[in-house]
Write a structure and sequence with these properties.
The chain is mainly alpha-helical. It is 74% helix and 5% strand. The protein contains 19 helices and four strands. Strands 1-3-4-2 form a four-stranded antiparallel beta sheet. β3 and β4 form a beta hairpin. The longest helix is centred in the N-terminal third of the chain and has 33 residues. The protein is globular.
């Protein structure tokens, strides 16, 4: 199992590394290309999200219809091409084009769906959390490597690095990741299932949450480096120190948050605490936007990183827990799309407001939005305690009768292993009672 999770997490991590690593210095890179339009700079940072929004669900559909490995490989090649366009760009417009091509390799939901296909339900939460942590680690490494490497060798070399890494990850994809088993659902997917996903309260609360979280991330990257250098007088070669300290505190914050979320089954509490940190962080960043307040501003940046690092793996994990098995690919595709919508508007709005508004006023507005988000998330239910029962298929099993048993949530057939997988709520029915009732039916 570790080989599968590790390989897919490596693929997801390298891809997100390629997106994140340029963010801390992309604004400064755009300035070096001759543009002074901060709105255009913000658009360059978040433009990859446009094609992610457009192609995320189509890639998920292709992944369901064809080999997920081939679709993931296609996405990695497209991402590498976009990175090369950025590496050889001589204008901000070429950078924007390259970022849009990068985003067209929208494989996030396909990778998540691949894990869903290969990992049993009992271990899938840990697998999704592991992938979330790998994305988080790629984020931390990007924050450390991006500012120092990009300033020293040039951002074009960073884009070359991401292109190489993207192509190299195709090797473990085919060498280490097996083909997915053939799954057959006992409840057919139709238009009503699509509507059901969109109407699911918990799933939509997560969609709104990932939109706001990614908005805050790209908004922050649009303004933090430029304010540090041009408002607070920090030398651009010193930016990496602020991000390094922030990354260190983010790592420290990760462990207790994951323990509380997974071991003590309190993911909602961790998300709420992180939202409060987001609000405080932005207020500190707003009040710290003056030359005498570099330390206060830096504390705000550190708190922002802690909040983001607590949020990211837990939010990714929860997104895989609420939808039913036959709805997961669709649900994860919608979830990822919402995230990229937030990413796009965060960069664009950040660039516009940095030029036209006093940032303290902006930070207060964001803090108010965080309060509303906090209230909204109070209505999120902690995931139900579920288990799976695995039964060898035979002609005597009446699946409809099994699905009608009180406490059974769903069932699906693993054709490759000739198994009927029954998911049930262990608060409503015990495994022993379920087995007894199934024996009576058979």
């Amino acid at each position: 199992m570790f080989k599968i999770i590790g390989s897919l997490s490596l693929i997801a991590g390298f891809r997100f590394f390629g997106l994140f690593v340029v963010m801390p210095t992309l604004g400064l890179y755009a300035l070096s290309l001759g543009t002074t339009n901060t709105a255009l700079i913000g658009f360059a940072i978040s433009s990859y999200a446009i094609s992610q929004i457009i192609f995320q669900i189509p890639f998920g559909v292709l992944g369901d219809k064809y080999s997920k490995r081939n679709i993931i490989a296609l996405g990695l090649v497209i991402f590498a091409i976009g990175s090369l366009i950025c590496a050889f760009a001589n204008s901000i417009e070429m950078v924007i084009l390259g970022r849009i091509v990068q985003g067209a390799g929208a494989i996030g939901s396909v990778v998540s769906a691949k894990i869903t296909d290969l990992i049993k339900e009992e271990k899938r939460g840990s697998a999704m959390a592991f992938m979330g942590i790998s994305i988080f680690i790629s984020f931390i490494l990007a924050m450390l490597i991006g500012p120092s490497f990009g300033i020293r060798f040039g951002l074009d070399k960073l884009f070359l690095l991401t292109a190489i890494l993207s192509l190299l990850t195709i090797i473990p994809l085919y060498v280490l990741v097996p083909k997915a088993p053939h799954l057959e659902y006992t409840i057919n997917r139709d238009k009503k299932n699509y509507i059901k996903v969109l109407k699911n309260k918990n799933i939509m609360l997560l969609n709104i949450s990932v939109l706001l979280q990614k908005f805050l991330m790209t908004f922050a990257f649009s303004i933090i480096p430029i304010i540090l250098v041009h408002h607070l007088g920090l030398d651009k070669n010193e930016i990496w120190k602020v991000f390094a300290i922030s990354a260190l505190f983010g790592i420290i914050a990760l462990a207790p948050s994951m323990i509380i979320a997974e071991k003590f089954k309190r993911p909602k509490g961790v998300l709420l605490f992180a939202i409060a940190l987001f609000a405080i962080a932005y207020l500190l960043i707003g009040f710290g936007d003056s030359k005498q307040m570099l330390i206060l501003y830096s504390i705000g940046v550190v708190m922002f990183f802690c909040a983001f690092c607590m949020h990211e793996p837990i939010l990714q994990n929860l997104a895989s827990k609420y939808p039913k098995m036959q709805e997961k690919s669709l649900s994860l595709g919608i979830f990822t799309t919402f995230g990229y919508i937030g990413s796009f508007f965060g960069g664009v709005i950040g660039g516009i407001l940095l030029k036209k508004a006093y940032f303290l006023d902006v930070s207060v507005i964001i803090a108010v939005v965080m309060v509303l988000w906090f209230i909204l998330l109070l209505f999120l239910e902690n995931p139900k305690f579920t288990e799976n029962l695995y039964i060898k298929l035979n002609s005597n099993i009446n699946v409809k009768q099994i699905n009608a048993i009180s406490g059974v949530i769903e069932s699906y057939v693993n054709k490759s292993e000739n198994l009927l997988v029954i998911k049930f709520n262990n608060k409503e029915i015990s495994k022993e009672d379920l087995e007894k009732q199934i024996k009576q039916i058979v």
